[in-house]
Amino acid sequence: MILGTSRALRVFAYPEPVDLRKGYDGLFGLVKTGLGRDPLSGDLFLFANKRRVGCKVLVWDGTGLCIFQKRLERGRFASLFREDGGAVQLTATELSLFIEGCDLVGRRTLSPAIVKPKVLALDRAV
């Protein structure tokens, strides 16, 4: 997948259906006002339409905004729409599965939790 595979990559799904005729400026505005996030952070922002057959991903690559778009010919994307209006956070792997049409994304955890390194006790000289 071109969008990246690092666990450090953060993906935020917009919690409501979006009119996918929106371009750079429209999606930028949704990230800024709807999610309260910085569209120039390097995070990926996922949007899906009401019928869940189309999606767009907005990302800042360091030189400009990029939009990646997909339309499913069969089936629907998983529903990531939330009634509480909060963004769903995905891993890069979950984004890949979502784009492939996997319907489990958002319904159950598909990626293990991030491993937080523990501070090891320092060796003491005797």
Give a description of the structure.
By secondary structure, this protein is α+β, with helices and mostly antiparallel strands. The protein has one domain. Helix content is 17%, strand content 20%. It has helices at 24-35, 92-100, and strands at residues 11-13, 44-48, 54-60, 65-71, 88-90. The protein has a 5-stranded mixed β-sheet. A hairpin with a 4-residue loop joins strand 3 and strand 4. The protein is globular.
Query: Numbering strands along the chain, what is their spatial order in the largest sheet?
Result: 4-3-2-1-5
Shape: globular
Radius of gyration: 17 Å
Helical amount among residues, as a percent range? Answer: 10-25%
How would you summarize what this structure contains?
This protein has two helices and five strands. With 126 residues, the chain is an alpha+beta fold.
Key attributes of the depicted protein:
126 residues, 5 strands, 2 helices, 20% strand, five-stranded mixed sheet, alpha+beta
Task: Summarize the SSE layout with pairings.
Elements (H helix, E strand, L loop, with lengths): L10 E3 L10 H12 L8 E5 L5 E7 L4 E7 L16 E3 L1 H9 L26
Parallel strand pairs: 1-2
Antiparallel strand pairs: 1-5, 2-3, 3-4
